[in-house]
Amino acid sequence: ARTAPPADLRDRIVAELDRTRRRSALLTEVVDDADLMRQHSPIMSPLVWDLAHVGNQEELWLVRDVGRREPVRRDIDDLYDAFKQPRRDRPSLPLLRPDEARAYLGTVRTKVLDLLDTVRFDERRLVADGFAFGMIVQHEQQHDETMLATHQLRVGPPVLAAPPPPPSAGPVTGEVLVPAGPFTMGTSTDPWALDNERPAHRVDLPAYFIDAAPVTNADYLAFMAAGGYTEPRWWSEPGWHYRCAANLAAPMHWRRDGADWGYLRFGRFSPLVLDEPVVHVGYYEAEAYAAWAGKRLPTEAEWEKAARWDPASGRSRRYPWGDEDPTPEHANLGQRHLAPAPVGAYPAGASPLGVHQLVGDVWEWTSTGFHGYPGFAAFPYREYSEVFFGESYRVLRGGSFGTDRAACRGTFRNWDLPIRRQIFSGFRCARDPRPGEHDR
Ligand code: AVJ
Ligand code: FE
Questions:
Q1: What local confidence, expressed as pLDDT, does residue 406 receive?
Q2: Mean of the pLDDT values across residues 417-439?
Q3: Which cofactors does this protein require (predicted)?
Q4: Cβ(386) to ligand 1 under 6 A?
């Protein structure tokens, strides 16, 4: 006999699916059909591909697998398989047109809402605690952030608007000493945590310093003014090679404004806000800045200990501020603003040791390659994480202003190639204590 799911879990799933779909709708209704079908950059998909792809994943996982229903459109599976279709080929595929894609998403969603009333949340691991639904919510939110990055690459008059982020409540400078000792990294209990965040395991770290705030535009300008982009000694060998091949001289989307710099942001030009975290830098640039500053990037474990370890209890928490879900007071998430907030804008989101803005604003590059934790098991499919494991990718942590709270927590892991700059990526620095310094 089938039992209805617990009402509160069902309601939360419906609310999250609905909230997420409204974001996808917003991102795809502010431009016309021709714009949706166009490829705005060879490294991005046409927006209409992302849209139908999230519907296709929802069909594959929720309608067919969880619901064991008949396929809606088996004929389009290959078109929307990211592994079968390289990005540069996507605009020339016989894609669903925008109205067809919207109708397809609607049909799939109707079936999902229908099966939600009969699914047994205790029957299979895939559906325990609503995991499959949470995975699909996070998948769509991740594509929404990708679509936001496509909007940032799009040339033309602005179509997105949002209020500016809150001002700084006071300067945040310097470094924080994280004492030596073990902490719990990853999670075995967070119900919607993805496979690469699991399992929880102990990691023992020596003492280290980590910046209290992300590197700002002012900081980054100082690196540029000191010849950062022209001095190979600050760069790794592959980094310098890429810097030269791509002729890098500033973060992506920066534009000269007379003697100064500004940036082009979602179709609007503005002067740099100096105390905002720098965004649209690749790993190699972050690494070069850190070397110039006499520091290094944090490892992934150092980032997570700074974000989760509570010195009072010794426990790892979900977020720097505790276990409560993010509110607008804690962090700049969810595309509420179309920019990172200045350093000091979220004092309520700081960690107990005083590290600010770990969550939200900009994804932060770490020096760690993307690997499975000890005891990793691919779930529910190898193509989410496992096929990317290796040193080719670097892990990014913390989420950006374009990351939804459903796809962001102290354990959440993002990854990308070191050359990538179209994502909302920035960084902070870390360093080892100098002899005697950690005894202060
Ligand atoms: C985790 C952001 C690297 O966008 O490539 C989307 C997420 N996986 N569809 C990506 C993802 C499958 C992934 N990142
Ligand atoms: Fe995807």
A1: 98
A2: 93
A3: Fe(2+)
A4: no
142 CA distance to ligand 1 middle (Å): 6
Give buried/exposed letters for 247-277 (b at 16+ CB in 10 A, else e).
ebebbbbbeeeeeebbbebbeeeeebbebbb
- Evaluate if residue 1 carries a pLDDT over 80: no
**pLDDT on residue 439:** 53
Using one digit for the tens of pLDDT, what is the confidence trace for 2-45? 455 688 999 999 999 999 999 999 999 999 999 999 999 999 99
| Ligand 1 atom, smallest distance to 146 CA | 4
* DSSP H helix total and E strand total for the chain: 9, 12
DSSP H or E run through 209: strand 208-211
pTM for the predicted model, two decimal places? 0.97
- Yes or no: say if 380 and 198 are a contact pair by the CB < 8 Å rule: no
Closest ligand 1 atom to 57 CA: 9
Q: For residue range 334-386, what is the model confidence (pLDDT) as tens digits?
A: 999 999 999 999 999 999 999 999 999 999 999 999 999 999 999 999 999 99
Q: Long-range CB contacts (< 8 A, 24+ apart) of 251-259?
A: 251/220, 251/278, 251/279, 251/280, 251/281, 251/285, 251/421, 252/280, 252/281, 252/421, 252/422, 253/152, 253/280, 254/280
Contact 29, 19 (CB under 8 A): no
Any atom of ligand 1 within 6 Å of the Cβ of 139: yes
- What is the spatial distance between Cα 146 and Cα 286, in angstroms, rounded to a whole number? 21
Q: How many Å separate Cα 214 from the centre of its chain?
A: 15
Kindly identify the ligand whose nearest atom is closest to the C-alpha of 148. Answer: 1
